[in-house]
Write a structure and sequence with these properties.
Layout lengths: L1 H24 L6 E7 L6 H14 L3 E7 L6 H12 L6 E5 L2 H8 L8 H7 L1 H4 L2 H6 L1 E2 L2 E2 L2 E2 L3 E2 L2 E4 L1 H7 L7 H13 L3 E4 L3 H16 L1 H9 L7 H14 L11 H9 L3 E5 L3 H9 L9 E4 L6 E5 L1 E3 L8 H12 L1 H11 L15 H12 L1 E4 L9 H17 L2 H14 L5
Parallel strand pairs: 1-2, 1-3, 9-10, 12-14
Antiparallel strand pairs: 3-13, 4-5, 6-13, 7-12, 8-10, 8-11
Helix pairs in contact: 2-16, 10-11, 10-12, 10-18, 12-19, 18-19
Length: 421
């Protein structure tokens, strides 16, 4: 009986592989439409357009429908996507942060196709780092194709401004607190901040500095409680940092917070390295001389990573066209066309670094040697349920500044959303 079952499983696997192979081999003959769903608009639009242009050249018979929903970090797009997925009208492929944002939500709900056969057909098991493949997969399959690697814990500044003000980029939060009062006296905001999700983004850099990488990972495995003494200390440090941010943060986009640094109204901003894409592509500033960067204070030698990826929902209207899109995204050519414009680095191990600027080369080198940990704000460490609840916890903290109560609330939502179970 076991032999018969095993033989059946092999037959199913072989048939699935043949199905993927047949579909990708017919790629040049594709017709109809391809709807891609993302939140890449405005300053991030050129990178997406570069991929669409490549797809149009490869598959001229397909009309690409760019269903972009604007909003930083996909806040608005995720709400629209939820309505469509639950309503039985999924886009052909959609952008999602690799990790638990997809796995803990749509994979858990059995709404995604396993892409393992595609990975094997394209040779991607060797093209992407093992650690990344583990983060986009489970014991039951691989669920999305990574387009890039972004770094969350980056401190941005303008070298000429720091020279003018007589300060240096802080390596620790103690360094920051030493220079922040001087900057405030000059009428300069020490640290630019924007709307709620950027507060979540800042929190993960502060928390990593406070906790260390081992305890950060322990939070997400359930081995360290959010309301532990260590967890409370992270919120206390966060409160001290917030005292040196701008009062109008909730009314600003992340680009506007970056503009404060570019214009000299603020000294620093902690943002993902899409800010490098914004400054180099939109603002036409040169990495290194025009703008500078460092690991966020207290996180040197550590790399908070996130990856944008695309998956294949079950029951899509244009499955073959979507598979061809995924093939492009995972290719070296697609990756190296997209990432230099986006400000990110390639997820592939064989990227052509000659096509990247000095910031990307620096980030790529760090990714190869630093301790890698996952981002909360961008979907690696926790599912969408926790992330949604955490936004409410953050709102509570921004109003109360009560570290004990906030840490307790964070632990409650961790239990509610199954962290550590």
């Amino acid at each position: 009986m076991k032999t018969r079952i095993f033989s059946t499983c092999l037959a199913v696997a072989a048939a699935t592989m043949l199905l993927f192979t047949a579909q990708t081999s017919r790629a040049a003959e594709l017709k109809g439409q391809l709807e891609i769903f993302s939140w890449w608009a405005g300053d991030e639009g050129p990178a997406l357009q570069a991929l669409i242009d490549m797809y149009n050249k490869q598959h001229p018979g397909v009309t690409v429908v760019n269903a972009t929903v604007t909003g930083g970090s996909g806040v608005n797009a995720k709400a629209v996507l939820k309505t469509r997925m639950l309503g039985g009208e999924p886009p052909d492929s959609f952008q999602v942060h690799a990790g638990q944002e997809l796995i803990g939500t749509w994979v858990k709900a059995d709404r995604m196709e396993d892409l393992t056969p595609l990975f094997k057909e394209q040779g991607w098991m060797k093209s992407f780092p093992d650690g990344l493949v583990k983060n986009i997969g489970t014991a039951d399959g691989i669920w999305s194709v990574p387009v890039n690697i972004h770094r969350s814990n980056v401190l941005w500044y303008i070298p000429a401004n720091l020279d003018k003000w007589g300060v240096k980029a802080p390596a620790s939060w103690d360094d920051f607190f030493a220079i922040a009062p001087t900057l405030k006296e000059k009428g300069i905001v020490p640290l630019a901040l924007a709307e709620n999700w950027t507060a979540n983004h800042l929190w993960e850099s502060v928390a990593l500095a406070s906790l260390g990488a081992d305890n950060w990972d322990a939070l997400w495995s359930g081995k360290l409680a959010f309301d532990s003494p260590e967890g409370v200390k992270a919120w206390e440090l966060f409160g001290k940092v917030l005292a040196f941010t701008n009062n109008d943060a909730t009314s600003l986009s992340w680009q506007q917070a970056t503009d404060m640094v570019v214009d000299g109204r603020a000294a620093f901003n902690i943002m993902g390295d899409w800010a490098a894409g914004y400054m180099s592509t939109t603002k036409k500033m040169a990495p290194g001389s025009g703008f500078g960067w460092a690991a966020s204070p207290g996180t040197g030698g550590q790399f908070i990573f996130l990856a944008d990826s695309f998956g294949l929902p079950k029951g899509v209207k244009n499955r073959d066209n979507a598979l061809a899109w995924l093939v492009l995204l995972g290719s070296r050519e697609g990756s190296d066309a997209f990432n230099p414009l986006k400000g990110s680095i390639s997820a592939r191990v064989d990227t052509d670094l000659t096509k990247y600027n000095d910031y990307a080369k620096s980030a790529s080198a760090d990714f190869g040697k630093d301790r890698i940990v996952g981002s909360l704000a961008h979907g690696v460490t926790a599912n969408e349920g926790f992330m949604s609840d955490f936004a409410a916890v953050m709102e509570m903290y921004l109003k109360s500044r009560n570290a004990q109560a906030t840490a307790k609330a964070a632990q409650q939502i961790a239990v509610k959303n199954g962290i550590g179970k």
